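for the recovery benchmark. tokens below, seq after
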């Protein structure tokens, strides 16, 4: 006789990559149903953004996906600049592009290291943290901060690249590919890792589309969709890079997609260094004294490809210096919906690998 037992997985940190609770129904070790429960980290970022000047909201964007803060800043900045019809100097746009690609690498390294821990692998965690530390030191040199940057500004960036920062970036992109190869080999040579991830947590392409899944999860399910290619912004149409796609839709495919994305981001950063023009790093028309008087009227939304998927900020301006409405499209929120279908029919031991492969960050989920 079937006996279904309901148990709670979470909420706790860091084993669910944030304060996530999953209500799991079990028939023995088999997952019959799994429902994500969110809201434990709600900080009201959208409403807070509607209570201050346009530039002030940037600090709330930083705190969404806090391991990819620059990618969060970009979504808001591009939307506000579209709303206000702000022109951004070419150099500033190239700088933004390079910084968000470095942040994509840093974000994927956080995922890869913690994913290894979830699978019982300690060594790759240290290797990933070593490489991420190099990126954070670059950010510290250029922005003055290691995690939450407040670096992008309406009309540009707050400070130019330093000669030391450029040297650090060059050194990183020249040495990182070999080190990434070493990290990848640790995972792929592990028989246990392969057994725990291949064919586990499968998500079909039809289900991925139906659930609004984007980013590495969607590409691991077989759809070659990347906003940097399909709806280019900044200068992505001027650089060469590939969009990795795998068709199995399992945990292992998501691992392969993210590793390859780091290689492609390195290629993009190298090209930006070659193409980076001289000039202003911000539009002098929008110097700091002017920012407090900036007004927006109408509505705008610019989708961007964050490390987790489509991120964008819908902004409505009523002609005042304060946004009338700020609505965030966060990829982890949409991707997390698919967890229930990804877990059904698998064993409880597969839950950790599957949830880990989603790479949710709860500052962005609960926002």
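predicted aa per position
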């Amino acid at each position: 006789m079937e006996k279904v037992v309901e148990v709670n997985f979470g909420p706790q940190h860091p084993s669910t990559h944030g304060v996530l609770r999953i209500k799991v129904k079990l028939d023995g070790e088999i997952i019959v149903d799994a429902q994500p429960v969110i809201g434990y980290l709600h900080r009201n970022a959208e409403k807070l953004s509607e209570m201050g000047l346009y530039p002030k909201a940037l600090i709330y964007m930083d705190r969404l996906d806090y391991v990819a803060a620059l990618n969060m800043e970009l979504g808001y900045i591009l939307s506000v600049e579209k709303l206000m019809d702000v022109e951004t100097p070419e150099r500033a746009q190239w700088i933004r592009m390079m910084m968000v690609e470095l942040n994509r690498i840093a974000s994927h390294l956080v995922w890869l290291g913690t994913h290894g821990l979830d699978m019982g692998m300690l060594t790759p965690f240290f290797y990933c943290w070593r490489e991420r530390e190099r990126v954070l030191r670059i950010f510290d040199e250029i922005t003055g901060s290691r995690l939450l940057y407040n670096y992008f500004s309406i009309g540009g960036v707050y400070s130019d690249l330093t000669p030391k920062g450029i040297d650090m970036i060059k050194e990183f992109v020249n040495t990182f590919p070999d080190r990434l190869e070493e990290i990848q080999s640790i995972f792929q040579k592990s028989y246990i890792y392969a057994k725990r991830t291949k064919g586990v947590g499968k998500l079909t392409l039809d289900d991925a589309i139906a659930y609004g899944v984007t980013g590495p999860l969607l590409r691991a399910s077989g759809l070659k969709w990347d906003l940097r290619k399909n709806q280019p912004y900044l200068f992505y149409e001027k650089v060469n890079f590939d969009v990795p796609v795998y068709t199995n839709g399992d945990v292992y495919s998501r691992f392969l997609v993210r590793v390859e994305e780091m290689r492609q981001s390195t290629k993009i950063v190298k090209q930006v260094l070659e193409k980076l023009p001289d000039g202003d790093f911000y539009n002098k028309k929008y110097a700091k004294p002017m920012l407090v008087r900036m007004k927006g009227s109408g509505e705008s939304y610019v989708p961007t490809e964050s490390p987790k998927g489509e991120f964008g900020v819908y902004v409505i301006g009523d002609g005042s210096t304060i946004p009338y409405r700020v609505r965030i499209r966060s990829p982890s929120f949409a991707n997390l919906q698919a967890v229930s279908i990804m877990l059904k029919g698998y064993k409880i031991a597969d839950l950790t690998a599957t949830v880990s492969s989603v790479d949710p960050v709860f500052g962005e989920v609960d926002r």
